[in-house]
Amino acid sequence: MLEVNNLDVSYGASQALYDVSMKAHIGKVTCVLGRNGVGKTTLMKALSGHMSPKSGDILWNGKSIAKQAPYDRAKSGIAYVPQGRDIFSQLTVEENLKTAFSSLKKKDRFIDKEVFELFPVLKQMLGRRGGDLSGGQQQQLAIARALLLRPKMLILDEPTEGIQPSIIKDIQRVIELLRDRGNMAIVLVEQYLDFATALADDYIILERGRVVSEGNQEKLQSSGDVQRLLAI
Ligand SMILES: Nc1ncnc2c1ncn2[C@@H]1O[C@H](COP(=O)(O)OP(=O)(O)O)[C@@H](O)[C@H]1O
Ligand SMILES: [Mg+2]
What we know:
Distance between the termini: 31 Å
Strand content: 25-35%
Bound molecules: adenosine-5'-diphosphate, magnesium ion
């Protein structure tokens, strides 16, 4: 289980997160919601080790990881798919997948066939350069690469941003399948509300760097929180 306690995160003198606390459970999708610029990506960077908190703590299965480097977090099963995907456009699809290997033990350094079951399009495109893929295919590649880490926590920052509806459906199915296996916590940043409400078991809403609401799927549907998100 992930437990974030009272996190403050700053860019130099500019504070982006204030006293943020959240939890994410294995076998559940926890959505981080809120409009542009509220601190969602900053929170994901803090979870993945790309930013250090000024204060507060991040516990993963009871142990503090707040001071661990991204590489060490990857080794302890935390996989991060950043906003904008961040695949290598000059490398082939296969080479992109293999970039996950550096944080894996030798025996685990192979491309699990399962990623082609989840994302069949990647199999046909193994030799193509990442930069030649569509945005949706690049997103699938980025998720596939993260899955090669056999994560216990998968962090997805706006996976639907700028991609076509048919691929959004595919990605939704994959997230549901991974969730239903029950061996991974999924933290999902989303601005596409239909996608988020379909997937969220639990959620938090950020506004100006603070958690202003939180709850479970039922609360998201029944409280005014969906309206609140639509209004902003
Ligand atoms: N590299 C950076 N340097 C300084 N400020 C930043 C940087 N990245 C983001 N910020 C600021 O931090 C706040 C939160 O940004 P971000 O976490 O990217 O929000 P979101 O992902 O919710 O759109 C914004 O005010 C943004 O301008
Ligand atoms: Mg963002």
